[in-house]
């Protein structure tokens, strides 16, 4: 009798445990990036009821598609909740629930929080919205505001000058929540007294998005001072910079400066720079004249910017191997067919390229060049030895100009010596 009762009780308990629903996986606290796909897992063993998710205590619905929430879906094979794309407004406390019935108890997971990190919005300088140039008086204090919206965590704003140096003095920052109460707006204020014209920009980043974004430049110019101009040059370029943008100023005496160092022997209305190189990159050339009060006034500022030369020979897309193979097959075909059809290979090369040719065409044959190799060529007048020199024309022109200057110098010296050797009293 006692044994029968124990068997019946054991069978009843086993059937009860087997029929209970239970969680295999449950959601956990999650932090994700806005714009991504996020999945809150919820897998139920011996599932008898219907799945439903709640956010901040409100049910989202029991349908898989969750029509009221088009970015939300539940998995067909489990109760997983997927959100795509994730938005800051999706933040909240989520809970997975499974209904019961027919003697099966409902179950609920532990509440978990979903946090959303957002990239800071594009920063902008308020004073540069209408015009990218601000004119101020010398000694006047300038106050600039940079704003970035939509970041979570809040954006950190930094200020930079035109040379890429960070500005840290007299900067204040304020953060407040946006209307959605999920993201933040950051406003940074910069105060300074410019001593010269300069460019200013700001950047915004946060802990979740370290790369950040950068605003457009605001150019601050002092009243009566010229606007900074950019001149892009390549290796070996020569350029004339006129003091008054190619306009003559009569017999005015000019002063020229490179990086604020005066070039004392240059007093013409233009400064000629020859054989520009990368070492002069970001150098500033200034020209000044005397005003009515005999004060030096800078009337033009030009920044020299180095540009890497990318000029290459423009040739038909044929490799050396392809050409030689084609020549061999042509000879075989000629022997078989007796056809004397000729093939022309064209190489189009820009003048004054900065690299030596890898292949040259000599006497109807393509030859591979080696470093410092001279080429022998012949015509009806004789035999010649040649060598390709990169930017040869510019170098020849410069040599010619140097020789002319030397010739003038020698003539001047000869005239001076002649005057010195004339007998006293001779007219």
Q: What is the makeup of the main sheet?
A: 6 strands, mixed
Q: Which radius of gyration do the C-alpha atoms yield?
A: 40 Å
Number of helices: 3
Strand content: 35-45%
Helix content: 10-25%
Distance between the termini: 158 Å
Q: What is the 3D shape?
A: elongated
Total count of strands: 34
Query: Which class do the helix and strand fractions yield?
Result: alpha+beta
Q: In terms of per-residue confidence, which ranges show pLDDT below 50 for 5 or more consecutive residues? A: 1-18, 350-354
Compute the average pLDDT: 79
Overview of the structural elements:
The chain is α+β, with helices and mostly antiparallel strands and 427 residues long. Helices cover 15% and strands 37% of the residues. The chain has 3 helices and 34 strands. The strands form 10 sheets. Strands 2, 5, 6, 9, 10 and 11 form a 6-stranded mixed sheet that branches. The protein is elongated.
Secondary structure: elements and pairs:
Blueprint: H1 2-19, E1 22-25, E2 30-33, E3 38-40, E4 43-45, E5 51-55, E6 58-59, E7 72-74, E8 81-83, E9 92-98, E10 107-108, E11 112-117, E12 124-125, E13 133-136, E14 142-151, E15 156-161, E16 166-167, E17 171-177, E18 184-192, E19 198-205, E20 213-214, E21 218-222, E22 228-233, E23 239-242, E24 255-258, E25 261-263, E26 270-273, E27 283-290, E28 296-306, E29 314-315, H2 320-337, E30 347-348, E31 359-362, E32 365-368, E33 375-379, E34 382-386, H3 392-421
Parallel strand pairs: 2-11, 13-21, 22-28
Antiparallel strand pairs: 1-4, 3-8, 5-6, 5-9, 7-8, 9-10, 9-11, 12-14, 14-18, 15-16, 15-19, 17-18, 19-20, 19-21, 23-26, 24-25, 24-27, 27-28, 29-30, 31-32, 33-34
